[in-house]
Amino acid sequence: GSGVLNGSWGVTRGGPGDGTGGPRVPPGCLGLLSGGSGDLSSSPPRDPRTPKVLLAPPPCAPPTPPPFLLTLVPSAPAHLERRLAVRDTWGGPWRRSGTPPGRTVFVLGVPAGAEGQRRLLRESRQHGDILQGDFADSYANLTRKTLLLLRWARACCAGARFLLKADDDAFVDAPAVATYLAAWPAAPPRLYLGRVHWGVAPNRDPRSRHHVPERVFAGSRYPPYCSGTAYVLSRQAAGAVLAAGRGAPLALPEDVWVGLGARGAGVAP
């Protein structure tokens, strides 16, 4: 298989020369996939809220070179058609000459029933691009997906220079994004790029699924943050957001959570 389910490994622990012929899995990735935080000595401090991994794609490891742009797509178990559309279009193998290499991974929680989990396991085995955390797949857990995708990228695909987070109902010209980033002569080392929201007030309506009570965020305005529809983080910015986001409540909207982590790290969108 391509992932982990009930402790069953789908990635090779060894590497070239050890008789397995598989990729060399980074130690921090082994820690994350076996229930740890995925920390290395050079990683951000451990966030104990990092979900346990149930299914995981193969890590970015030798002999395969790392992607220049790693695209991470939060999805829901029922959104198979959306994932197929992404694979067949902007998230699939890039065929443009001269485009930097890319890779796409889908991030999900746990479906409501056992049959849904069996379908996800089959999909993971077929496509090798499913990252699943041990939490209920719900709107309330979107920020947990973001925490997991950033932690997996840091621990298991640390060579990727840029991360693109995009919703599964968005259409992003990912090859064009990669080409733009590669051609940027002086891209900031800690880049946080997207459509910036300024001066947004928290939703205080308890009937709304966007409700954020004052106990979660007491301020009258969020700091500037990039829309969760799609945004780019450089490798350095993603690590800084992870480190600074440890104190931010996961009950916040996921894009606001990233924005708070960015503000805490001194990374401006």
TrEMBL record:
An MF annotation (GO) of this entry: hexosyltransferase activity
Keywords recorded for this protein, A-Z: Glycoprotein, Glycosyltransferase, Golgi apparatus, Lipid metabolism, Membrane, Signal-anchor, Transferase, Transmembrane, Transmembrane helix
Record's keyword annotation contains Transferase: yes
Subcellular location per the Swiss-Prot or TrEMBL entry: Golgi apparatus membrane
Domain of life: Eukaryota
Family: Belongs to the glycosyltransferase 31 family.
UniProt-recorded name of the protein: Hexosyltransferase
